[in-house]
Each structure stands twice: as structure tokens, then as C-alpha cells.
Amino acid sequence: MNILSVFPNILNSLSGFDPGFLSLVNLWITILIIVVLTCFIVSEITRNYSQVDKLWSLLPPAYAWVTVGSFHTARTVIMAVLVTLWGLRLTYNFHRKGGYNIIPWKGEEDYRWSILRKSSALKGRLRFGAFNLLFISLYQNVVILLFTTPILMAALHPESPLGATDILAAALMITFLITETVADNQQYRFQTMKRSASGGEHEYRDSLNKGFLTEGLWKYLRHPNFASEQAIWISFYFFGVAASGKWINFTLLGPVLLVLLFIGSSIMTENISSSKYPEYSTYQKEVPKFIPRIFRRK
Q1: What average pLDDT does range 104-124 have in this prediction?
Q2: Is residue 160 within 8 Å of 245, Cβ to Cβ?
Q3: Mean pLDDT of all residues in 15-34
Q4: 267 with 219: CB under 8 angstroms?
Q5: Contacts of 211 (CB under 8 A, 6+ apart)
Q6: Spatial CA neighbour of 169 closest among 75, 249, 258
Q7: Are 86 and 101 in contact (CB under 8 A)?
Q8: pTM of the prediction?
């Protein structure tokens, strides 16, 4: 089935492209539709709304490698390898927090979905079901597809040679993969210590007293893991810049929407933290959210 035939306007706009590229786009959209419907149906049946969360780290490598299968170039392979490293790291972090289960649709649900289900605006099966379809299952999957599209840009320009911009993009991605790994490890150790509630000296004694992490990378940013995640995909965008020769191109929509998603997510997370921990409002005033200060205030 040619999915693009269902969307004649899209088909007309792509009519001038290589048939192999059109076939690849058709495959991407097919994957998207299957995943959206699967996530929605499974989450509605099981009432576990973290189905997209389970696939977040798996879909970009899938999109990347099917692209390599159609357009095998040095750039697409490098991009796919980097996306796979990102996916392996995030999958492991999600696994150790209990996100996966031997039964695929089970596993820990993100606590924020439970809070949203109880909100007056979304209370009720019908209203939350609509939210699940339009935001959780559809919008988030569209964002995942869009921030991976720089590899489509690389496929669209297979003749474009590797250059300095590619090296910069790869170096930045690796750097932010490292900082995100450090941040997640610090948070995991802190949460483990917090749950154990044991006495004695601790690596994060001050944070444990406050109830939230303020040490390590959290000393410089309130969300160093979120900041690194956004930076990874902004860096990935520059591969598309290198391939196309255009600093502004259609793949920019992906990282922009991802940043907006993290802004909204962090606002909700911080509202919850502020309601639980009296000192969190002071922490918000003293430490920036995503971008570190070059000169820290005393």
C-alpha cells in the first residue's frame, strides 16, 4: 500500500523527488501510522499510558536504519550509528527504572500521566482518551519522527560529501550523550539512595535532606538530562545542514517541537516538585533550567 496516495497534497509536493526517496518516505509514514494506532489501542485497553515512552528510544534507530537500507552513504551510516548509541543508552536507563516488562505493555507508567488523569480538564475516560489519541499517541510520535528527519535530508542529498559541519555535529552529539549519561546516572544514584532511606554519610547528603537533587550537574542546571537530550537532537539537525547546504530547512521543525515539548514537560515536573519540597522555589531562582550561566551569581 502506498500511504502517500492517501495524502494527495503531500504526494504532489514530493512528485519531483527520486522514486527511491518517495518509497522511503512512504515507509516512514507507514511505521508512524502503525505505531500511533498500536500505542493508542494498547494504552486504552491496559490503562498504562507509557506505551510511547517504551518506544521513544527505539523508533529513531528504526527510522535511521531503514534509511541506511535505502540510501547507504557514509553520512547516513554515521548518523544511524550515533542514533543507535543514543537509543541504547536511553533504553538502558528506561529499563533500570522499571519501564520495561517481560509482558510488553506492562512496566512502570510515567507518574505524570496519573496526575493528568485526575485533573479536572482531563477527568473521565472520554476526555482522557481524546488526549491520549491526539497528544500521547499521535503528537509525541510525530515529534519523534520529525526530530529524526535530518537523516531523510541526508538521503535526499546522497552525493553531498562529508565536511566540517558533519564532524562538528558528531562531536556535539557525543559530548551531549556523555553529559546526559552522567546526569542520568547521578539522578539514578540519588533516587536509589532516597528510596533506601538509610543513615550514614551519603554522596548526596544535602540533596537527600532537601528531597530533590541539587548536586553534581544539577548544581548548574535544574534539568541537565533534559538539556542534553534537546542538545543531542539540535546537533543532529546539523547533519541535514551539511547534506543540504541550507542552514534553515524543513527538518528544523523536529528539534523546535522537541524543545517545546520539554518546556511543557519541565513546567509540569517543577510544579509537582514545588508542591512537594519547600526549598524547590529557591532552587528555581538560583539555578537555570536548561542553559547554564557562564558567570554564576554568588
Answers
A1: 88
A2: yes
A3: 89
A4: no
A5: 194, 276, 277, 279
A6: 75
A7: no
A8: 0.91
